Amino acid sequence: MSARGRVATCVFLAATFAAACAPSTSDGPPTASPTTAPDTATGANAAVPRPSHVVVVVLENHGTEQVSSNSQAPYLNELAAAGARFTDATAITHPSQPNYLALFSGDPQGVTDDSCPHTFPGPNLARQLIDADYSFGAFAEDLPDPGYPGCRSGDYVRWHAPWVDFTTVPAAVNRPFTAFGPDYTRLPAVSFVIPNMCHNMHDCDTVTADAWLRAHLSAYASWAATHNGLLVVTFDEAEDTSATNGIPLSLTGPMIRPGTYAEPVNHYRLLRTLEAMYGLPALGHAADTKPISDVWRP
């Protein structure tokens, strides 16, 4: 790692642990204090914090063993070491598109391939947030224009942007990645970041994607450490040949209790956790699980 990279890492880690000892600050409408959201799967209540901003980054087609402790992915492993690293995270199926739909709507919507286009009228995370007076946004690299409905442009592909498929979601939530930052106080409550087909590890190597993430997400990660923000990094699926479909998943932010967690987490449980943060009901198969509840600081 370069001297500059080491300095950036130290700043981020210092900010993260300093934030744990100081009162958290909030730039958005949601409160920084923990909120109790109903767990419809068990009838119990799970205490889940409400970040001011959540950014979910979705990468492509790499299993846990291909990323964890891999020298080709130093930034991903720095983030995981500073936050909660899940060692038993799994995707729902193969190939890519049904996993994105599962994470966004709680169901693959009958899709079993990467075909395009599709149109669905049903409920989804974006609509839930908007109806509850929160906000949702997506930032896709190589998207040519806000609200672009096409299946492909350059290295942008629509089958990695499930919000485009739902008639209940305003087209304007799909924005080019150039609109991400630098004023992170203006981010929606929940944002998805979709790198292009190179920088998501689909078409390019791990080193290239990891370097892109450091260059484009480290500023948000450092800012989030002192502004009640959460960064989630996950993958759509492992390689198509993977039987276990185990994927890397990490959560990093001042509300996280750093450590390695061996509990099962899939896209439905991650969706359930995002919904619980904002007091939203569980969608689809997310109702069959419960929010992640043991990684949060008291």
From TrEMBL:
Q: Give TM regions.
A: none
Low complexity: bias regions: 22-44
List, in alphabetical order, the Gene Ontology terms for molecular function in this entry. phosphoric ester hydrolase activity
Answer whether the UniProt record assigns the keyword Calcium to this protein: no
Output the superkingdom of the source species: Bacteria
Which residue ranges does the record annotate as region Disordered? 22-47
Output the InterPro entries linked to this UniProt entry: Alkaline_phosphatase_core_sf, Phosphoesterase
Q: What residue range is the signal peptide?
A: 1-20
Q: Give the matching PROSITE patterns.
A: PROKAR_LIPOPROTEIN
Q: Which UniProt keywords apply?
A: Hydrolase, Signal, Virulence
Output the PANTHER family linked to this UniProt entry.
Answer: NON-SPECIFIC PHOSPHOLIPASE C1, NON-SPECIFIC PHOSPHOLIPASE C4-RELATED
Protein name as annotated: Alkaline phosphatase family protein
